[in-house]
Amino acid sequence: MVHKQLTKARSKKKDDFYTSISDIENELKYYTSHFKNKVVLCNCDDPRVSNFFHYFAYNFERLKLKKLISVCYKNQNLEMFTNSKSEQAIYIEYTGDKNGNRVPDLEEIEVISLKGDGDFRSLECIKLLEEADIVVTNPPFSLFREYIKQLMEYKKKFIIIGTMNVITYKEVFPLIKDNKIWMGINNNQSCVFKTPYINTLEDNKKFCEQKGYVGDNFVKVPGINWYTNLLHKKRNEELILVKTYKGNEKDYPKYDNYDAIEVSKVTKIPKDYYGCMGVPITFLDKYNSNQFEIVKFRKGDDGKDLSINGKYPYFRILIKRTN
Q1: What's the rounded Cα separation, in Å, for the pair 192 and 180?
Q2: Cβ contacts of residue 144 below 8 Å, gap of 6+?
Q3: Which CATH architecture has domain 2-228?
Q4: What is each CA distance from 284 to 85, 156, 244, 280, 281, in whole angstroms?
Q5: Contact present, 298 and 257 (Cβ < 8 Å)
Q6: Residue (of 239, 274, 242) closest to 259 by Cα position
Q7: At what angle do helices 51-58 and 21-28 cross, to 10 degrees?
């Protein structure tokens, strides 16, 4: 049902899913060393309601940032739940505490009007992108393909949020295969987002309330990943393999249309097999490019989905050991 809500939101280009401060803190604490003397851009964030802006503004001195830029998209709907009633797009610049209280006061924040609507694809926003060293945000779900393409085109460092299905996009998987982007620290998580959409799902609301988010404008979304091209502690961790292929061949059936074995769980990757293996997409959370090579995604030699005795396991990534 939640996925239907997301699909409906994408079809109507409604992408108002605001990330919780706890999810932001839990991820960004692993990248502290990357932010020193850097210009950080949050280009899909109304600074009045964005927890990304809140995080960087209140941790500006601790992270030793050079500048923080946050862009507010023109709000066409003046009845939005956020009350961020903006008839004009703006962006703000914050360069740190000036009065010694280590708090981002209003008089320390420069508000600058935009001529356009603040869309990240506009020339005005591209100019801000060019100035930035690192981009950190939750881009619109419906525009993720265009968003990641732009980051690649302008060769930007980034930490962004996306769904698990992002991995399956033809515009994204080749970037993962070529080690141009990879997973962050906290992946395949059920996250709570604030939205303007009324959540009528009782089980979903109960999950949100257990996390401390009470009200109809919070929604649980499963399968949320962080995507980045910044090095972090998990990037080169070696996956410990304990299972064996020899003597357990029946547990690893061959595909009908590709010379590879099926490995149904990441924990079942055998330590004594060096041929091609099909693994779930959740493998990417453990992927170490020094330990494994990504061969291809999903398709067999016949161009059809990988199959076993005529049955099709859900999206598989074909990998091989590097050593």
Answers
A1: 28
A2: 162, 166, 169, 172
A3: 3-Layer(aba) Sandwich (3.40)
A4: 40, 22, 21, 8, 6
A5: no
A6: 274
A7: 50
Element (H, E) at 177: helix 173-177
Both tokens assigned to 40: 């950080």
How many angstroms separate the Cα of 240 from the Cα of each of 161, 206, 224, 236? 27, 36, 24, 12
Closest CA to 122 of 85, 76, 155, 91: 91
Using pLDDT thresholds of 50, 70 and 90, give the confidence band for residue 87: low
In the chain, domain spans: 2-228, 249-321
Chain segment 178-223, per-residue pLDDT in tens: 999 999 999 999 999 998 888 888 999 999 989 899 999 999 999 9
Its pTM stands at 0.89
Q: How far apart are CA 80 and CA 195, in angstroms?
A: 10
